[in-house]
Amino acid sequence: MNKPFQRKGAKSNTQVGKDFEEAAKVFFSNQGLTLQKNIPVDIGLNGKKSHNFDLGCLNQRILVECKSHTWTEGGNIPSAKITTWDQAMFFFYVAPSGYRKIFFVLKDYSPKKNETLAEFYIRTKSHLIPEDVEIWEFDERQKTANRLKLSK
Q: What is residue 20's three-state secondary structure?
């Protein structure tokens, strides 16, 4: 079956996301942070509604959203995926203050753009990134991550 929007070699995009969340959980565990999956937190501007963050710890007040998106096959901007990054920034914005907020993304370099997808996002969408959000970029091959943006 032809699935043009599915990552090559992947069973499903849902599985890609679950695997990436697990890799993030392992990475942070190796950093001394024990995180659980699907952490519910009440968010909102006018009233509150529960939102499940991908990972987090209520006791240590940590919230993590994970995205394993890549550039398109042609090296172009994955516009629909970037929209979900914007949405994640909004969820962080309306989350309670006092939480450490981490946006954990896959490191994907584009020779055409001469930057990673996270670098592109920070460069072009910095006006949408809340000051208290950290952006981490995960190298899947090396199992390492770099913090590209520190919270203020």
A: helix
Question: Per residue in 29-87, pLDDT tens?
Answer: 999 999 999 999 999 999 999 999 999 999 999 999 999 999 999 999 999 999 999 99
User: Which residue's entry shows tokens 């501007």?
Assistant: 45
Q: Which domains does the chain have, with CATH numbers?
A: 49-149 (3.40.50)
Q: How are beta strands 100-106 and 62-67 bridged, if at all?
A: parallel
DSSP single-letter state for residue 126 = G
What pLDDT, on a 0 to 100 scale, did the predictor assign at position 14? 80
Name which of 54, 15, 56 is nearest 35 in CA terms.
Answer: 56
Which helix or strand (DSSP H or E) is residue 26 part of?
helix 13-30
Cβ neighbours of 51 (radius 10 Å): 16
- Dihedral class, residue 90 (left if φ above 0, else alpha if ψ from -120 to 50, else beta): alpha
